[in-house]
Specification:
Layout (H helix, E strand, L loop, with lengths): L5 H16 L19 E3 H20 L4 H26 L2 H10 L9 E3 L17 H16 L8 H14 L26 H14 L19 H14 L14 H4 L9 H15 E2 L2 E3 L32 E2 L1 H12 L3 H14 L1 E2 L5 E2 L3 E3 L5 H6 L7 E3 L5 H14 L5 H4 L17 E6 L2 H9 L5 E2 L6 E4 L1 H8 L4 E2 L4 E2 L8 H4 L3 E3 L2 E5 L15 H18 L7 E6 L7 H14 L1
Parallel strand pairs: 10-11, 10-17, 12-16
Antiparallel strand pairs: 1-2, 3-4, 4-5, 6-7, 8-9, 13-14, 15-16
């Protein structure tokens, strides 16, 4: 038998750690991870983060799998990922009726549950007994599902499951206008149970929408029926709101260390490099401490001043938590990954050293990530007077599997077992790089031969709708109607997307449906929708604005194609023809 290489020996070490600290807690029936040995609840968010280390280790083994033993370990790790992701999928599919209702009502009581029983995947608390509406959790699941599928894992097995995931896309697509309870499950900082718009939820939803767009859930063996479709305008609305909010997390939380997962791994949701730097610097300057980062200012969770018998606090009472907020080593793990993806080795080493100093060493020498550090009761007054001067003690779970998983991922990156591209096969990390200038293509088509001949008299040579065959030209409302067929499934009782407005990003490309090719005119020129389209001068002004918007917002493959149909109502007077001549020469 051949001897193990140094890299193989080191990976075996990480495999033993992952198996002992993470995989040993995975339920054999559902594949879910309980919160602890005494709490069988399985949170969607925590479970997805827990499995990332397993996924990363499987890809590391795949690269050195020159022995049967390595290939077996790689397969075992991959199947552990598949089992977890499918366990969460089955738990959510059991609540398919809630997905269907939420698309209509957007009521927090109709949202998917944030946690399930790790024993059987069933709900563990009632609809109104927990802040279940956590769009970031469902979005994180979809994002990692897309990344794992792109890496070669087969997680989705049937078209019924494809339909459900398509409906999950519709579930999160309006995240930019849906207040939720956020990454810390509390909504407003006072914990009164009031949801609010959270930048972390919007950013994660934006990342999930972009990752799922045009993704074949069956991988290389799929076909058109297994492809997920996303309206590009919905993702851009999330981006616009996210950029307007950063570096702020929400109205009540001001700043939140949870934004590190939005500006860096795994979401990479922000496209503006300066905004990314500003957000990171704001977090480090206001929330970073010796033992990690605070979640947000005046966070009373697990502090010595917290009253376990109280659920809510008045806003003025939060001042007693100032300067004694718990510090979470978890965020050092995020910072290590953030700088690893930017190839900043000095910063990676700095935070790795900081993290190692505050980790708990087990009896066998294994380094464990604790959940958080709190100021001891007897040192609170000193901490008030001199913030950051007192030693802190571990509170909460140890190891904290969410943080432990990210720590192992960081180690695999630092030691060269993984490349950043393997953790991001969809290349989301490249979103902040400078993009080439966008050239917007505008096509003007005549409604019939009469209009074509009139335009020819003014030296404008166009084709008619009939002459551009086999391409069929339809109004935007037809595209909106076609999208309602996506995700329809009678067996699951899912009706697909509700017919809503369609933006310029979605109508600026060609669509293939079976053997037919469609081009769609923008919604603002639809006379049957609104009378404003009959005002030619206003319509041209709107068109100019939409073209400028396309130049700045287009991030899909190819060039945007704006299709305009000239009708008789547009050519009622000669000056209208001159006006269209003017715009023709202006555009081209």
């Amino acid at each position: 038998m051949r001897s193990r290489s140094n890299s193989g020996v080191r990976l075996d070490y990480y495999q033993r750690i992952v198996h002992r600290l993470i995989m040993s807690h995975q339920e054999p029936v559902t594949g879910l991870f309980p919160a602890s040995n005494i709490n069988s609840h399985a949170w969607i968010r925590d479970n997805v983060y827990c499995i990332l280390a397993v996924w990363g280790l499987s890809m590391a083994y795949k690269k050195i799998a020159d022995q049967d033993e390595d290939r077996a370990k790689c397969y075992e790790l991959e199947q552990s990922c598949v089992k977890l992701m499918r366990g969460l999928l089955m738990a959510m599919m059991n609540q398919k009726d809630k997905v269907e209702r939420f698309k209509m009502t957007q009521n927090p009581l109709d949202s998917l549950h944030a946690k399930y029983s790790s024993k059987n995947g069933q709900p563990v608390v009632g609809d109104g007994e927990w802040g279940h509406l956590q769009i970031d959790a469902v979005s994180l699941y979809l994002l990692i599902l897309a990344q794992m599928t792109a890496s070669g894992l087969q997680i989705v097995f049937s078209l019924d499951e494809v339909s459900f995931i398509q409906n999950l896309v519709f579930y999160i697509e309006s995240a930019y206008c849906i207040p939720d309870y956020g990454i810390w499950e509390r909504g407003d900082k006072t914990n009164h149970g009031e949801p609010e718009l959270n930048a972390s939820s919007i950013g994660m939803a934006k990342a999930a929408l972009e990752a799922m767009n045009e993704l074949d859930l069956f991988g290389a063996r799929g076909g058109p029926a297994s492809v997920i479709h996303v309206l590009a305008d919905e993702a851009h609305k999330c981006q616009a709101v996210l950029q307007s909010m950063l570096p702020r997390e929400s109205n009540s939380k001001e700043l939140d260390s949870g934004l590190l997962c939005v500006i860096g791994f795994p979401a990479f949701a922000a496209d503006d490099p300066q905004l990314i730097r500003n957000t990171k610097d704001a977090i480090l300057s206001r929330l970073q401490g010796k033992y990690g980062c605070k979640r947000f200012l005046r966070d009373g969770y697990r502090t010595p001043k917290e009253d376990p018998s109280r659920l809510y606090y008045e806003r003025w009472e939060l001042r007693m938590f100032e300067n004694i907020e718990c510090e979470w080593p978890l965020f050092y793990c995020y910072l290590i990954l953030f700088h690893a993806f930017q190839n900043d080795k000095l910063a990676v080493k700095e935070y790795a050293d900081r993290l190692e100093r505050i980790m708990v060493r087990a009896d066998d020498g294994t380094l464990l990530i604790p959940e958080s550090y709190a100021v001891p009761h007897n040192l609170v007054s000193n901490e008030y007077q001199h913030p950051g001067s007192q030693r802190r003690e571990v509170v909460g779970r140890c190891p904290f599997l969410w943080g432990q998983s990210l720590f192992i991922l960081g180690r695999l990156l630092q030691e060269g077992f993984l490349a950043v591209g393997e953790l991001d096969p969809l290349n989301r990390r490249l979103g902040a790089q400078k993009k080439p200038d966008v050239v917007v293509q505008v096509v003007i088509i005549a409604e019939d031969n009469e209009i074509r001949d009139k335009l020819t008299e003014h030296d404008l040579h166009v084709q008619t709708i009939a002459e551009v065959a086999p391409i069929e030209v339809q109004p935007a409302r037809v595209l909106s109607h076609l999208y309602t067929y996506l995700g329809r499934n009678r067996k699951l009782g899912l009706t697909g997307r509700k017919s809503r407005d369609v933006g310029i990003l979605s109508t600026s490309k060609l669509y293939s449906l079976k053997d037919r090719i469609f081009a769609f005119t923008p919604q603002f020129v639809d006379l049957s929708r609104f009378y404003i389209a009959s005002d030619n001068e206003l319509m041209i002004d709107i068109l100019k604005g939409e073209i400028n918007f396309l130049k700045s917002a287009w991030d899909l493959l190819g060039r945007p194609l704006v299709t305009l149909v000239l009708r008789k109502i547009h050519l009622g007077r000669l000056n209208n023809i001159c006006m269209f001549s003017l715009i023709w020469f202006m555009l081209f």
